[in-house]
Design a protein that fits this description.
By secondary structure, the chain is of the alpha+beta class. Pfam families: Cation_ATPase (PF13246), E1-E2_ATPase (PF00122), PhoLip_ATPase_C (PF16212).
């Protein structure tokens, strides 16, 4: 980044057409000597400056905010410009648009909903609603205009705003604390000639950092040296791109030898770097080193960049220099600002309030009673806001305290960070999921193998144990029997060669953890390779030592050395790896492992174990295991000598080297003898297949967005039941925009002509390159049309930004509620783009959980979160909103009808404090209890019948909140107010003469009507309640009893203190009058009789699915479906075998860097590594 530099640096226009021209000819900044004590005792070091582009003589006067397309995502326009200096040594880089407290030295996280630059919290409701409340509150303060007391009105508003703000502040405070945990992690930074601890948020550009094995990188670093030979370093980037294979990085040769603090402190020079950008796979820079012969330029490329969010693996330590921090890191460049999310229910509430406002305004103008009518809407909104906030907070608390979503292994409960979104959980139609760490555990385990036609497994069920039938061994042996067969079975020689191949043919590096020779740690760039070597270890073939030209294995206590002659590397075209070795007996052997398709076609004739091995492969495929075929051959000295010369020539050619090497390998990988096959489990999280199947039954469409390779993603899709056996795969792997467009158009045309679309479900597989074209403006709608025709969608090799773009595409074009779930920093953009974001927590470094609205520990908890808590929350909140509108309209409309009797004089029916207490005391509990505890069916029924979830998606429940139900409840409230008012008018016509001869009077009638209204709305609450708990009894009958006790006490005491004098003398007359009791009992029955008949007819004559489930729950009717499920499971197994026979060779994963042969040649594990 350039900016206000005093060192002749140029501002760079990122849109300059000449951005990549004349790289070497650019005029660069000169080194600066720092006048300080530190500079006096240490050599001058690096000062990175962004590479200018275009005309080197051109100067731009535009500020950086106008040049950086990402500037507005993170930085305010008025933010100060400042410089950052390294605390390590003399390194400095000019940084614009950052202050010392800004994002430049914040490492990763800033998930708060508001900050110091935007301090106003979002209350989750529209500005229109709140501005209306403020306007009406000011009107309520005018004496003789408002029917309520001005202090009660203002006090209620203050309570509402305070409660809402408190909830939002508490939720944001939790996010802030979570961010601080990351920002205050400690790393080691060079100061002088020693490394000292420093918090991540104090790391600055130019600091030299020491990172140790297993740690995450605190910033984007340039690798300088490491503990490994030639400055090698292994990193895991699953947090960034979803890739499970380890990436190999290598320090520049010129700095790889600086392996001590004193040596690294002696380094001097500066770095020219590209500007911050969001490309994870590219980097251009130049390291200019100060040497005795003058400045020396060392080119820097992606092999030297260590990105924030990645984790160092299989390497003891590295030294790296900080090049980007905070929001300049590539990880954060792929992120977006934390959005403010509002639910569809809130939006609909606001729309209906606007409609009500228009109606009430019309009524106000007609009756000239604006203040009275305003009190209707004001009371409605205030009580609704308070109740909704309290209920949502409690619903979130119920999620947090659910023991079914508590993960004991990591002591992690579910955590609902944004309670304002809980009802959205009941309307989800699309789920966008990451793969690595979300669906899988990123752990490979060696489970089964087939050797010489016999099946072996680590664990064998009793019914599947091997038996001898008609002289033939059938079934599965355990690994203990395998060890026995190695010694005294006719296939012992084949077993020996099989296990030797697993221990020798690989690129794994062994590391002795301590003095115990049996305690070996394997460093593998591919998790599959690591699992195979560990599997050999379990079977007593222990890989112990790697040297540049040989490997050692220990077999039953005996050390054997195998000379590594040649390695034919794996790539996606070959789908196999071969190693040519000289065994201890002097024989030359070729060991080969790979996909079944490529191995089977290279076998010699009359292989005795082919048929049995194929049968075992089919069985492994039905279990979702990743398979490899294992083969070998012996090579004569003459044949090897001839082939070796061809291989050497191919390895040194300057044109088409990889192609020539493949041809050379093809010459020797023939006439192979099939030893058997391996089966590795890419371990899924517990319950993933069942959860996905259940969610699909619930009408939720699941898309997997992963950075992993296509073969791995498809295999995981099959094993987790996202891609089912009966599905046909549509695979999009195009290299151009035109080809992608043509493919999509042809597929859409073909699919539209299908006679029965439901007969053959589809799954869409698309890679990142094709997705880049599909997301273009002219093609995105067609891509979405194709994707929505498929039951499952898998997007492979996608970047974090593409994940977010896919979510936004669906969000923009479909009227559906979307949920995104992931566990890594690469999933944050996707999580924030969806309506609801869910993060997988419980693992160190998982920023997704901190940025999400809800955090859970396991993917399987998503089932209860949505099908139970989500369905309940949406149902409860819908009923709460409808009932809140109903109860307020019912009360206040009786006052509206009274205007036609009082000559529009402004006289009200009820005493003002009683009106205020209506929503605060007497009807506050029923909607709250309904919103927190009500259940239309139990959690067990919702889990048994996941199709019930579709009622929320399609808004089919009677109590679901939509325009139709809202106006239905509104009309019902108008009807009840009419009955209440006019029947009471009929009873009290010409006033009522009491037994003592006195007239009852206006306030006697008003109190009686108020009691009847209260009895009616509480009776309505009882009628719509599905689950009665102790809290329900306290809320509904308890509220009415509380009103009776309250009015008796308040009406007697208050007038004596010249307060609420309308009740003076009323109470003794009221509770001794039979007319009072008749009115309170009769009118509610008349009102609610229609509601009861309506509910009865709907249940008996227009029955819906949830009515039936309620009956099943009530009478505990058994479910006979498990038998059908067993039958369907058998059908799926047959289809899995059929699919395997149609398409093989995609069931394993291997690193494809093209450097394995070179890398393993530089390792010698017998030599001690530098301690750094």
């Amino acid at each position: 980044m350039s900016g206000t530099s005093n060192n002749n640096s140029y501002l760079v226009d990122p849109f300059d057409d000449q951005a990549n021209e004349n790289f070497q000819d650019i005029n660069i900044n000169q080194s600066i000597s720092l006048q300080s004590l530190q500079a006096a005792v240490t050599p001058q070091t690096f000062r990175p400056a962004y590479l200018p582009s275009g005309n080197r003589n051109r100067r731009l006067s535009l500020p950086y905010s106008q040049l950086d397309p990402y500037h507005d995502d993170f930085i305010d326009d008025d933010e100060e410009q400042d410089q950052f200096y390294s605390d390590s040594i003399g390194l400095m880089r000019q940084v614009s648009n950052m202050s010392n407290n800004s994002e430049a030295n914040l490492p990763l996280t800033s998930n708060a909903a508001y900050s110091s630059t935007s301090p106003r919290p979002s209350m989750g409701h529209s500005e229109i609603l709140m501005s209306n409340i403020k306007t009406e509150t000011s009107m309520e303060q005018i004496k003789d205009v408002s029917p309520t007391n001005k202090y009660t009105t203002l006090g209620t508003l203050v309570v509402v705003l305070a409660a809402t703000a408190f909830k939002e502040i508490m939720e944001d405070y939790k996010r802030h604390n979570s961010d601080s945990e990351v920002n205050k992690r400690i790393c080691k930074s060079l100061k002088g000639k020693t490394f000292e601890g420093k918090e991540w948020n104090e790391v600055k550009v130019g600091d030299i950092i020491r990172v140790e094995g297993g740690e995450f990188f605190p910033a984007d670093l340039i690798l300088l040296s490491s503990s490994e030979p030639e400055g090698l370093c292994y990193i895991e980037t699953s947090n960034l791109d979803g890739e499970t294979n380890l990436k190999i990085k290598q320090a520049p040769t010129e700095t790889a030898g600086l392996v001590s603090p004193a040596q690294i402190a002696s380094l001097g020079g500066h770095i020219k770097s590209e500007k911050p950008n969001n490309s994870l796979y590219t980097f251009d820079g130049v390291l200019v080193m100060n040497t005795a012969d003058g400045p020396k330029q060392v080119p820097l490329d992606p092999m030297q960049i260590l990105l924030r969010g990645a984790q160092m693996r299989n390497t003891r330590w590295i030294y790296g220099i900080v090049i980007f921090t905070g929001h300049e890191t590539k990880l954060m460049r792929n992120a977006s600002a934390t959005p403010i999310k509002r639910t569809s229910v809130e939006k609909m509430v606001n729309v209906q309030i606007i409609f009500l406002f228009c109606i009430l305004l019309t009524m106000s103008l007609a009756c000239s009673l604006g203040s009275l009518i305003t009190s209707i809407k004001f009371g409605d909104k205030l009580s609704l806001i308070v109740t909704m906030e309290v209920v949502k907070f409690q619903q979130a608390a119920l999620i947090n305290s659910d023991l079914d979503m508590y993960y004991e292994k990591t002591d992690t409960p579910a955590l609902c960070r944004t309670s304002s979104l809980v009802e959205e959980l009941g309307q989800i139609e699309y789920i966008f999921s990451d793969k690595t760490g979300t669906l899988t555990c990123n752990e490979m385990e060696f489970r089964q193998c087939s050797i010489a036609g016999l099946a072996y497994a680590d664990h064998v069920e009793e019914a599947k144990k091997a038996q001898v039938v008609d002289g033939v061994e059938a079934g599965i042996h355990d690994f203990k029997q395998l060890k026995t067969n190695l010694k005294n079975h006719p296939t012992g020689n084949v077993i020996n060669e099989f296990l030797t191949l697993l221990a020798v043919c690989h690129t794994v590096i062994p590391e002795q953890k301590d003095e115990n020779p049996d305690n070996v740690i394997y460093q593998a760039s591919s998790p599959d390779e690591g699992a195979l070597v560990k599997g050999a270890l379990v079977l007593d073939f222990v890989f112990t030592t790697r040297r540049p030209k040989s490997v050692n294995i220990r077999v039953n206590g005996t050390d054997l050395e195998y000379e590594i002659l040649n390695i034919c590397e794996f790539n996606s075209t070959r789908k196999r790896m071969s190693t040519v070795v000289r065994s201890p007996d002097g024989k030359i052997k070729l060991y080969c492992k790979g996909a079944d398709t490529v191995i089977l076609e290279r076998l010699s004739e009359n292989n005795p174990f082919t048929e049995q091995t194929l049968q075992h492969l089919e069985e492994y495929a039905t279990e979702g295991l990743r398979t490899l075929c294992i083969a070998m051959r012996e090579i004569s000295e003459e044949e090897y000598h001839n082939w070796s010369s061809v291989y050497e020539k191919a390895s040194t050619t300057l044109t088409n080297r990889q192609e020539e090497l493949d041809k050379a390998a093809e010459m020797i990988e023939k006439e192979l003898f099939l030893l058997g096959a391996t089966a590795i489990e890419d371990k899924l999280q517990d319950g993933v297949p069942e959860t996905i199947h259940t969610l699909q039954q619930a009408g939720i469409k699941i898309w997997v967005l992963t950075g992993d390779r296509q073969e791995t993603a498809i295999n995981i899709g099959l094993s987790c039941k996202l891609i089912q056996e009966e599905m046909s795969l549509i695979i999009v792997n195009e290299e151009s925009h035109f080809a992608t467009e043509e493919f999509i158009k042809q597929k859409i045309k073909a699919l539209k002509n299908r006679a029965n679309p439901e007969a053959e479900p589809l799954a869409l597989i698309i890679d990142g390159r094709s997705l880049e074209f599909a997301l273009k403006k002219d093609l995105e709608k067609q891509f979405l049309d194709l994707a929505t025709m498929c039951k499952a969608v898998v997007c492979c090799r996608v970047s974090p930004l593409q994940k977010a773009l896919v979510v936004k595409l669906v969000k923009r074009h479909l009227k559906a509620i979307l949920l995104a779930i992931g566990d890594g920093a690469n999933d944050v953009s996707m999580i924030q783009a969806a309506h609801v974001g869910v993060g997988i927590s419980g693992l160190e470094g998982m920023q997704a959980a901190r940025s999400a609205d809800v955090a859970i520990s396991q993917f399987r908890y998503l089932k209860k979160l949505l099908l139970v808590h989500g369905a309940w929350s949406y149902y409860r909140l819908s009923k709460l909103i409808l009932y809140s509108f109903y109860k307020n309209i019912t009360l206040y409309m009786t006052q509206f009808w009274f205007t036609f009797h009082n000559g529009f004089s402004g006289q009200v029916i009820y005493e003002s404090w009683t009106i205020t207490y209506y929503n605060v005391l007497f009807t506050v509990l029923p909607p709250m209890v309904i919103g927190i505890f009500d259940q239309y069916v139990s959690a067990r029924m919702l889990d048994r019948y996941p199709q019930m979830y579709m009622l929320g998606q399609k808004i089919l429940l009677i109590s679901n909140f939509n325009v139709r139900s809202f106006w239905g409840w509104t009309i019902n409230a108008f009807f009840h107010s009419l009955v209440l008012y006019w029947v009471s008018i009929f009873i009290f016509d010409q006033d009522l003469v009491l037994s003592d001869g006195q007239l009852a009077g206006h306030w006697f009638w008003g109190t009686t009507l108020y009691t009847a209204v209260l009895a009616t709305v509480l009776g309505k609450a009882a009628l719509i309640t599905d689950l009665w708990t102790k809290y329900t009894y306290l809320a509904i009958p308890g509220s009415f009893i509380f009103w009776v006790v309250f009015i008796m006490a308040y009406g007697t005491v208050a007038p004596k203190f010249r307060f609420s004098e309308e009740y003076d003398g009323i109470i003794p007359k009221l509770f001794t009058s039979p007319v009072f009791y008749l009115t309170v009992c009769l009118i509610p029955v008349i009102c609610l009789f229609r509601d009861y008949i309506w509910k009865y007819s709907k249940r008996m004559y227009k029955t819906r699915s949830y009515h039936i489930v309620q009956e099943i729950q009530k009478f505990n009717i058994p479910d006979y479906r498990p038998r059908m499920e067993q039958f369907q499971k058998a059908i799926r197994k047959v289809r899995a075998v059929q699919r395997l026979r149609r398409s093989r060779g995609f069931a394993f994963s291997q690193n494809e860097s093209g450097q394995e042969a070179h890398l393993i040649r530089v390792y010698d594990t017998t030599v001690a590594k530098p301690k750094g």
